């Protein structure tokens, strides 16, 4: 059983659904959304497709995030090539 929607073939019988982009999702729910909304994001927000979420402020701090990435890279390098950890 295949359903064609907005040019995307959804192969339901094969156990997967093709990914839809935001515009496809909004147009599926409200085909003429441009008449009522100034932007795609306003329409998606009102339709409940996207939602704002509160996140931990520390997750937004790039210094901490990058420090973790650098530390993982150092650890992986030491694990693969050996050597003493640098202080």
Nutshell version of this structure?
This protein has 87 residues and is mainly alpha-helical. 45% of the residues lie in helices and 9% in strands.
Write a concise keyword list for the protein shown above:
single chain; about 90 residues; mainly alpha; disordered N terminus
The helix content is 40-55%
Number of structural units classed as domains: 2
Major sheet attributes: 2 strands, antiparallel
Number of E strands: 2
CA(first)-CA(last) distance: 61 Å
Task: Round the mean pLDDT to the nearest integer and report it.
Answer: 78
- Helix/strand structural class: mainly alpha
Shape: elongated
Task: Give Rg in angstroms.
Answer: 22 Å
- Following the backbone from N to C, one meets helices and strands in this order, namely EEHHHH
Strand content: 5-15%
| Poorly predicted runs of 5 or more residues | 1-13
The largest beta-sheet arranges its strands as: 1-2
Number of helical stretches of at least 4 residues = 4
